[in-house]
Amino acid sequence: MSGLTPIRVRGRRKRVKLSHGDQNHAAPQVNRGNRRGKQLLPLDASRRSLYARRKRPFISGSSWLSSQPQSQLDSLSQLQYQHQSEPLPKKKKRKNLSRLERLPVELIEKIFLYSLNVNFARCSPSLAAAVSSERVWRVLILLAFWRGPPSPTSESEEGSGNCISAGVARILRPLNYAPLGEDERRTLQSTVFRCKWCTVHRVLNNLPDLMALTIQRLWIDAGITMDKDQQESLNQYLDSPTTHSTETLTFQGTKDTNTYTLTLAPLTSIRITSPETNKDTTTPFLNLLEFPPHLLRGGSHGFNNKDIAFLELLRVSSGFNRTDTNSMHLARNISLNRDALQEGIHKAIISRNHDALVTLLKIDEYYFRATTTNNTTINSEDMIYTLPAEHYRTSLPNIQTFKLLLRASAESVPSDDSSITAWAMELGGAFGNWLLDLMLRMPEIRESVRERPDAGVFYMGRCNRESEMGDRYLRDVLGVEGVEGWMGEGVDFVSLARNED
C-alpha cells in the first residue's frame, strides 16, 4: 500500500517524513530559485509591475468571479470604480504663526489703526480675525467721515488748538489720533465704502459719536462756555441722542462777552450762530467727500431697501436737503460720478423702483444746481439741468415713472420724439394734452430757463406756478394748489437707528 499524499499547510516548516518504501518513489527535488516561484525584478521594473496590477480590474483572471452572474459582476465593478475615484484625504499641514500673528490682539489693532491699510487684514486669516471687531470698524468710520483738526504745519502749531483735546481722544479710543490730510481721508473713505461691513445701520449707529466729535471740536474746544443747566441738558442729549425727540434743539453759550447759539438737527448737522461776530456756519456730521459709484449704480439686481436708505442717509447728512445759498456751496467739495448715477437711474426706471429713482434724481439735480450756481466759467446752455432723453423713452408706458422724471426736469423731454408723441396722443386726457403742448413749446421754455434757472416748469421738485405750463399742470393735471420742493423730504434716521435689530 502506497503512502498518503502529503498536504502542504502554509506556515509549516517541517517536511513530513516518508516511509522507507515511499522514499524510492518520491518525486525528484526541483530547484525553484526563490521561494516565491518567480524571478526577482529590478526595483524600477517592480514598481511598474505593481502600478500595472493596481490599475488592472481585480475581477479579471478570477475563476471564482467568472462563474458569478453578470449582475453581481457589474455591482462589484461599480464598487471598485467608486473606491478608485475617491480622492485620498489631504493631510493638513500645520502652519506656524509669524511673530506679528502671535502678538496680543490689542497690539495688532494698534498696528492696523496706525497703518490704516486694509491690505493688512488680508495678509492672513489670523490677522483678519484680530482686526474684525466692532470697535475697529467704529474707529475707521469715525476717521473716514469726521473732519478733524488740520495737520500742524510747524512745530509752534503742535501745541496750539490743532492738537486734539481729552474729550476727542476719549471718543476715539482705542485710536491714538493723528490728523489726516484731505487726500488721505478721501482714500480712507473710499476704502471704507467698499468694505462689506460698511452698512447703513453701522454708519447710523456711529452718527451719535460723529455728532459728539463735531460738537466737542467746534463748540466745547472752541472755548464757548455754558451755564450749568444748559451743560447738563447737552450732556444728557449726547449720552442717548436716539431716545430723544427728532425736533431741532438749541443751546446757548458765551465767549469773550459774545453770545453763541448751537442748533442741533438730530443726527444730521449743527449750526453755530453769533449776532455779535456775524458768524453763521452749518457743519454736517457726516463729512462726505465722494458719493460711492458702486452705490449709485446699484447692484446687478437693482436697488434694495438698504441701498436706498444708505443713499438717503448720505444725501441728507451731507446737506443735499437744504436749498439756501450758504448751504449749497458745501456740495461743491463732494465728488460725484454722473455717469454712474445715470446708470443707476436707468436701472431704477427699468425695475420701476420709484423710491430709488426719486433719491437719485434728488442727488443729481442738487449737485448740478450747487456746482453751477454763480459759476462764470460755464456757458448759459450748460447751466440748464437736463436728463438723457433715453430715460423718458425707457419709462414708457408707465405714467408714474414719466411724471417723476418730469418733476426733476421737464425741459429734458425730447420735443421731436415720435414714440413719446404717439404715447401722449394715445393717452389723451388732461395729461396727454398737456404733454403735447409742452413738447410744442419746448424751445421757448428752454430759452427762459437759460436766462433764469428757477423759471422752469419745475425747480428742485417744486412746481413753478409763475410758469404757464407749471400753472396748467397744477390746475388741469393734478388739481391742486401747489407742489412744494422735494429736497427736504427724506428718511427719519433717528427712528431707523432706534428700530434696528
Automatic annotation (TrEMBL):
Low complexity bias (residue ranges): 75-85
Residue numbers spanned by region Disordered: 1-39, 75-95
InterPro entries tied to this protein: F-box-like_dom_sf (IPR036047), FHA_dom (IPR000253)
Entry-linked SUPFAM superfamilies: F-box domain
Residue ranges occupied by any FHA domain in the UniProt entry: 328-383
Basic residues bias (residue ranges): 9-18
Protein name: FHA domain-containing protein
